[in-house]
């Protein structure tokens, strides 16, 4: 399928760096930055590998096109189009026998969420949450390991980053000085490898590794798939073990996927932000199979509200109000999956420093991730854990959930009504746990089977004590507390006056309002169906969406275009009964079908054909107890 070029942003997103050519910039969201990124008259063309330079030149001349630049590694050209629209040029080039694909330039942009003044703490919680401090006892990284931060550049003279960088490249200004003019890349770099134990600012997850700054986004945080692809290729060619892409866009790009595959084949591990749209829709380049896609959580391991989600998202990491380095030598907080991604890149760099290969690093990260809230629904694995990924373990003791000696390391979330067994294994040991209530109601905590005099505490999200139970001796401890609203809570278990037992475990159980009353609502699923584009004559193919046991399903057509009055798209139910038929050119719409199955069937005649259709979202109507996705509470208008 031919795809067009597009703008990418960081996530907070970052844009693409391309071949050695300078694109002009474009703005995103409500106002596209087309005044600075040249996407109005340039396209990307990849010729077949055996196409000679003379043949390429003759084809360009025949179509009044001008060669702007060439990428040698994966073999694409940037072509300036004259005398026809971008869409017409793409169609013409795709029809040529010597062309593998042609697509538009896609814009990638920076898109972090604004700072929230209620998050007033200066604590850098991310490193604690993923147990980086324990991981540092195993490995702080190697100076021979390189993490490429493909972003807005990096402030090389920041006090917490000075000496941490190696040479990189600026694909926006086309020179060897990738100095950050926006700030996003500097923030990302600080999370990966800011100096540690230097009495300044923040601590990098992998403080002894090196950062390769590659600037592919301009001073407004925008760049195109040309820049980003070239930035990825540059990093892979210059020895980057890990490539951090805190950027992306919802539109696919073949040249971007080619660049990712190029880096993968060179041995680089590519890690990318899942996006901040709060949707299950694919986000690129994170969606590609050769990329670790990263979602976001907050300091309590609750999912970041705007994180994209789905089975294509691999792991999560801290992404809300993350403290790191900023322009001008300072420090500040940013929120987004852009901030989550460098946490994973830092862990990957520690693993690379242990001598692990690309695939071994990915396996270690995914297999040791913590099963926090959202795991299995919002992302496939859990929230990354640096200590466990590096082989840290407490398997030789009965203190199963260690290290959890601080609030920031609290194990959880505890499942309501489930029992947990652990130990207080020394005089200074304190066990922290956490959980989240979804509604008002009664919280009950029970601490039993005590081998020594242990005390029980309930605390709110800030760590303020709400209730305690300290009966003395080996008596069971219990707390009952009524909450008037949903919220996050902590449980603390500690020995009175240093009491502990190294051989016997205690039992903890929490009962709380784990969910609001089940109600019927709509749920998204990250699935896409589409016909051939264009479809062929005498076409007769179907796509079926089934969600067993639900009352209704829905399909969202982002585009439907057939020959009016001759070629039809029939929507059928589970029994094959036609519910609705469409033809012609329609705007995006939803169609709802009663029952648990919807079938979309395109039938054409033997003459004119057209685009066909693309279904970019599906949904089902059910109670929350039946859903394996998070509630979206959206309304679906029925196409009339």
UniProtKB/TrEMBL annotation:
Span of domain Fervidolysin-like N-terminal prodomain: 40-103
This protein's record includes keyword tRNA processing: no
Protein name (record): S8 family serine peptidase
Residues in coiled coil: none
GO biological process, one term: proteolysis
Span of the signal peptide: 1-28
Domain Peptidase S8/S53: 143-375
InterPro entries linked: Fervidolysin-like_N_prodom, Peptidase_C_arc/bac, Peptidase_S8/S53_dom, Peptidase_S8/S53_dom_sf, Peptidase_S8_Asp-AS, Peptidase_S8_His-AS, Peptidase_S8_Ser-AS, Peptidase_S8_subtilisin-like
GO MF term set: serine-type endopeptidase activity
Subcellular location: Secreted
UniProt keyword annotation of Hydrolase present: yes
Active site residues according to the UniProt entry: 151 (charge relay system), 184 (charge relay system), 338 (charge relay system)
Gene Ontology cellular component terms for the protein in this record: extracellular region
PROSITE patterns: SUBTILASE, SUBTILASE_ASP, SUBTILASE_HIS, SUBTILASE_SER
Keywords, sorted A to Z: Hydrolase, Protease, Secreted, Serine protease, Signal
Residue numbers spanned by region Disordered: 390-414
Pfam families assigned to the protein according to its UniProt record, in alphabetical order: Fervidolysin_NPro-like, Peptidase_S8, PPC
Domain Peptidase C-terminal archaeal/bacterial: 429-495
Entry's family note: Belongs to the peptidase S8 family.
């Amino acid at each position: 399928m031919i795809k067009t070029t597009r703008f990418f942003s960081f996530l907070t997103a970052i844009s693409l760096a391309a071949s050695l050519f300078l694109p002009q910039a474009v703005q995103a969201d409500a106002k596209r930055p087309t005044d600075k990124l040249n996407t109005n008259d340039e396209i990307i063309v990849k010729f077949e590998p055996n196409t000679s330079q003379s043949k390429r030149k003759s084809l360009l001349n025949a179509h009044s096109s001008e060669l702007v630049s060439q990428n040698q590694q994966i073999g694409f050209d940037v072509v300036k189009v004259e005398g026809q629209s971008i869409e017409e040029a793409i169609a013409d080039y795709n029809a040529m026998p010597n062309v593998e694909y042609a697509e538009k330039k896609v814009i990638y942009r920076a898109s972090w969420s604004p700072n929230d003044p209620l998050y007033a703490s200066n604590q850098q919680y991310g490193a604690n949450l993923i147990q980086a401090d324990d991981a540092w006892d195993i490995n702080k990284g190697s100076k021979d390991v390189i993490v490429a931060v493909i972003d807005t550049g990096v402030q090389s003279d920041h006090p917490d980053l000075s000496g941490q960088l190696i040479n990189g490249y600026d694909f926006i200004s086309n020179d060897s000085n990738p100095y950050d003019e926006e700030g996003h890349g500097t923030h990302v770099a600080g999370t990966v490898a800011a100096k540690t134990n230097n009495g300044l600012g923040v601590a990098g997850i992998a403080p002894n590794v090196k950062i390769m700054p590659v600037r592919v986004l301009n001073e407004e945080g925008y760049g195109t798939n040309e820049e980003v692809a070239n930035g990825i290729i540059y990093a892979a060619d210059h020895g980057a073990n890990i490539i951090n892409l805190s950027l992306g866009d919802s539109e696919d790009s073949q040249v971007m996927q080619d660049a990712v595959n190029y880096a993968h084949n060179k041995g680089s591990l590519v890690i990318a932000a899942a996006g901040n749209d709060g949707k299950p829709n694919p986000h690129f380049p994170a969606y590609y199979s050769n990329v670790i896609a990263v979602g976001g959580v907050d300091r309590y391991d609750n999912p970041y509200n705007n994180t994209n989600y789905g089975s294509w998202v691999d792991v999560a990491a801290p992404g809300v109000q993350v403290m790191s380095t900023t322009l001008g030598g300072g420090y500040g907080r940013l929120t987004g999956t852009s901030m989550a991604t460098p946490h994973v890149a830092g862990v990957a760099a520690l693993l690379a420093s242990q001598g692990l290969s690309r695939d071994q690093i990915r396996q270690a990260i995914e297999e040791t991730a913590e099963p926090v809230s959202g795991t299995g629904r919002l992302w496939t694995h859990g929230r990354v854990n640096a200590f466990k990924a590096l082989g840290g373990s407490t398997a030789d003791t009965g203190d199963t959930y260690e290290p959890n000696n601080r609030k920031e390391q609290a194990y959880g979330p505890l499942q309501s009504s489930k029992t947990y067994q652990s130990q207080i294994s020394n005089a200074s040991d304190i066990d922290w746990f956490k959980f989240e209530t979804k509604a008002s109601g009664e919280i009950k905590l029970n601490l039993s089977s005590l081998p020594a005099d242990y005390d029980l505490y309930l605390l709110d999200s800030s760590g303020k004590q709400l209730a305690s139970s300290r009966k003395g001796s080996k008596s069971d401890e219990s707390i009952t507390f009524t909450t008037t609203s949903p919220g996050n809570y902590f449980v603390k278990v500690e020995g009175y006056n240093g009491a502990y037992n190294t051989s016997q475990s205690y039992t903890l159980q929490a009962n709380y309002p784990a969910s609001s009353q089940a109600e019927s609502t709509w749920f998204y699923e990250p699935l896409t169906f589409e016909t051939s584009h264009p479809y062929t004559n005498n076409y007769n193919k179907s796509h079926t969406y089934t969600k067993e046991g639900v009352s209704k399903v829905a399909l969202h057509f982002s585009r439907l275009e057939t020959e009016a009055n001759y070629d039809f798209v029939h929507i059928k139910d589970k029994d094959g009964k036609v519910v609705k038929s469409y033809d012609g050119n329609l705007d995006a719409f939803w169609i709802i079908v009663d029952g648990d199955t919807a079938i979309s069937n395109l039938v054409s005649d033997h003459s004119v054909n057209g685009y066909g259709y693309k279904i970019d979202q599906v949904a089902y109507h059910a109670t929350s107890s039946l859903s394996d996705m998070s509630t979206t509470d959206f309304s679906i208008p029925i196409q009339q």
